[in-house]
Amino acid sequence: MKYRRLGSTDLDVSVIGIGTWQFGGEWGKDFTQMEVDQILDKGREVGINLLDTAECYGDHLSESFIGDYLSRNNREDWIVATKFGHHFIDNFERTRQWKADQVLKQLDHSLKSLKTDYIDLYQAHSCSDEEFNNDDLWTMLDKQVQAGKIRNLGISLQNEASTYQTKTAKEVNARAIQLIYNRLQREPEDEVLPIAEKDNLGVLARVPLASGYLSGKYKPGATFEKSDVRSKHDQADTSKKLKLVEEIARNEVPEGVPMATWALAWCLKHPAVSTVIPGCKNPDQVVLNAQAADLVSTNHPQHKQ
């Protein structure tokens, strides 16, 4: 495994993390604590130290799985990132909760669910620019940093990453951003990633396998079952993506390298990117994800010995 300093924080994160949205049940599978334990045990074994979750992955369900694990293992071995701004309700719907007092309640609930005294990276979760402009919220969060409940603040940007929030991150004491970035979705390269690089913001790249399209499993014409979130994607767009993936596999992926491994390492080549946080369903996928670190150069500006 390789490690990078996360922006101006004091956190050295593994270049491969574990995204845990799936633990909330929205990926079409209900996880057990034993299955989560096996995934996190394997992550620790291969040198992964970063977990990314959120209060609304289930009703603090993903956090609770992680918290149960942390209570039986060394909390200090892990960098835990979670998020705020939503409240989970039935059928995977969420309400938006951005008032300072609401977020303070979310923070305390997250700490309780995670069975920890502090959160390493507490991220605003897909807020609009209007929701972001909330002095009361950021003042309250700064007080929680001073109290030791939060080590660092971050911003998990919406699917269309906000240039404004990225430019303003330092003003609200946010030291990292999270965004969608992969070989099929390169828009952040235009403005957002250069700002992050200039302002020394850590960057967590989510959806690095483009919702599995870059896994190498699917050929043009592939269809997805109704339980698969990709079945809801626009069919024409899916067809276009699969054709592009076929071209990438033919022209860019080295012979003998699994496409998924290559795709994770591809994200990590950008000088602004600190870490990627792919999801995983089982320990074998954790191992395959971790192998991408072998393709990552030690010449990256954030590389840690």
Automatic annotation (TrEMBL):
<protein>
    <submittedName>
        <fullName>Aldo/keto reductase</fullName>
    </submittedName>
</protein>
<dbReference type="InterPro" id="IPR023210">
    <property type="entry name" value="NADP_OxRdtase_dom"/>
</dbReference>
<dbReference type="InterPro" id="IPR036812">
    <property type="entry name" value="NAD(P)_OxRdtase_dom_sf"/>
</dbReference>
<keyword id="KW-0560">Oxidoreductase</keyword>
<feature type="domain" description="NADP-dependent oxidoreductase">
    <location>
        <begin position="16"/>
        <end position="295"/>
    </location>
</feature>
<dbReference type="GO" id="GO:0016491">
    <property type="term" value="F:oxidoreductase activity"/>
</dbReference>
<dbReference type="Pfam" id="PF00248">
    <property type="entry name" value="Aldo_ket_red"/>
</dbReference>
<dbReference type="InterPro" id="IPR050523">
    <property type="entry name" value="AKR_Detox_Biosynth"/>
</dbReference>
